[in-house]
Design a protein that fits this description.
Blueprint: H1 2-15, H2 17-43, H3 58-76, H4 78-93
């Protein structure tokens, strides 16, 4: 994630500033290419063969809605899931 990258580069900047600069340049190039790819995938023209696809059915909407709610729920309150994982993982890691 961003926080981890920032900490790595903040530490590297103090010791090896030129290597940190090369790493930052790599991150900037990667971000630019990734944003260009997203633009072409999501904002590009729709191919003819996909123009006639039907809308989602109720089962697909239910599945998608359930996944969206789980993603948002875990994002808002990750401790609910992490507590369950910790309970079952504890014996395996020797706690």
């Amino acid at each position: 994630g961003f926080v981890a990258e920032f900490q790595v580069f903040a530490g590297a900047l103090a010791v090896y500033p030129w290597l940190a600069g090369i790493g930052l340049l790599g991150i900037v190039i990667t971000a630019a290419l990734f944003l260009r790819m997203l633009q072409q995938v999501f904002l590009g023209p729709l191919p003819e063969r996909w123009a006639e696809w039907p809308d989602l059915g109720w089962i697909e909407r239910l599945t998608l809605g359930t996944l969206i709610l789980l993603i948002i729920g875990i994002g808002i309150a990750p401790a609910l899931l992490l507590d369950v994982i910790d309970t079952f993982a504890g014996p395996f890691v020797g706690r």
